[in-house]
């Protein structure tokens, strides 16, 4: 395994659409292993291949506190969502920036594993946000595109009863 450099905002590649993975070979496994190491080293909860300069539909993530929920998503697609949440989000490609976004509260994703088998994953809370955030990366979308800038909207929705 080796770490790779994380592409930062301002690089046009972050705005490009990633292509589906067709070959589940050693080259893909090397990419996945490198992405895993890069994400953990950067203390991230998720990383998309485009963030290491590879325009393929590949995501790694681990939203657990103790780094025990590592997942690899290849060619992921959101198949179902429930509810909504407005929470803070950041991105390894936008160091030091964060903002509130509107995301579904629960997300189900269909994706292939490193051998090409299709699996379904369910995420709630942070994991649901992470699924959406990383899949957005594959389509050239950054969290700042979805940021809620109207403070009154945030307070009205999440500050009820306070
Ligand atoms: Ni990101």
Q: Helix proportion of residues, in percent?
A: 10-25%
Q: What's the total count of β strands?
A: 7
Ligands, ions, cofactors? nickel (II) ion
- Shape-level CATH architecture: Alpha-Beta Complex
Give the overall pLDDT as a whole number: 94
- Largest sheet: spatial strand order: 1-2-3-6-7
Count of discrete domains: 1
Using the coordinates above, name the CATH class: Alpha Beta
Overall morphology = globular
CATH topology (fold) name: Peptide Deformylase
- Give the ordered list of helices and strands: HEEEEEEEHH
The secondary structure category is alpha+beta
Tell me the radius of gyration. Answer: 16 Å
CATH homologous group name: Peptide deformylase
- Uncertain runs: none
Report the sheet-strand fraction: 25-35%
Number of helices: 3
Which features would summarize this protein structure in a list?
162 residues; alpha+beta; Peptide Deformylase; five-stranded antiparallel sheet; two-stranded antiparallel sheet; 3 helices; 23% helix; binds nickel (II) ion
Question: What does this entry look like structurally?
Answer:
- The protein is α+β, with helices and mostly antiparallel strands and 162 residues long.
- The chain has a single domain (12-158), classed as Peptide deformylase (Peptide Deformylase, Alpha-Beta Complex), CATH 3.90.45.
- It has 3 helices and 7 strands, in the order H-E-E-E-E-E-E-E-H-H.
- The strands form 2 sheets. Strands 1-2-3-6-7 form a 5-stranded antiparallel sheet. A two-stranded antiparallel sheet has the order 4-5.
- Strand 4 and strand 5 form a beta hairpin.
- The longest helix has 16 residues, at 26-41.
- The termini are far apart.
- The mean pLDDT is 94.
- Bound molecules: nickel (II) ion.
- Nickel (II) ion binds next to helix 2.
- Nickel (II) ion (NI) is lined by residues 91-93, 133, 137.
């Amino acid at each position: 395994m080796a770490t790779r450099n994380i592409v930062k905002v301002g690089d046009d590649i972050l705005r490009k659409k990633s292509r589906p993975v067709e070959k589940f070979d050693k080259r893909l496994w090397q990419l996945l292993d490198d992405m895993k190491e890069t994400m953990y080293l950067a203390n991230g909860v998720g990383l998309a291949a485009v963030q290491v300069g590879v325009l393929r539909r590949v995501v790694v993530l681990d939203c657990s506190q103790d780094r025990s929920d590592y997942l690899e998503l290849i060619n992921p697609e959101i198949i179902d969502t429930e509810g909504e949440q407005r929470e803070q989000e950041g991105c390894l490609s936008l160091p030091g920036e964060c903002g509130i976004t509107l995301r579904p509260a629960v997300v189900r994703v269909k994706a292939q594993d490193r051998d090409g088998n299709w699996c379904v994953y369910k995420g709630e809370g942070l994991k649901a946000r992470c699924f959406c955030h990383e899949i957005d990366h594959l389509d050239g979308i950054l969290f700042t595109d979805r940021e809620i800038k109207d403070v009154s909207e945030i307070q009205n929705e999440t500050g009820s009863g306070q």
